[in-house]
Design goal:
Helices cover 52% and strands 0% of the residues. The protein is mainly α.
Length: 61
Amino acid sequence: MPAKSQAQQKAAGAALAAKRGDAKKSDLKGASKSMERSMSEKDLEDMASTKQKGKPKHVSP
């Protein structure tokens, strides 16, 4: 599932790093914290690998 915005892609990257142990889980905030808990490593990898070009910075809910 590709990211819909640059912010979502960055949050997925942070969550993926924490899930893999490259970053501290305690450093996560907001969306990345819930993504780390609720998504699989494969899903996070798919979202984090989305290209940012052409994506808006943020998407309204």
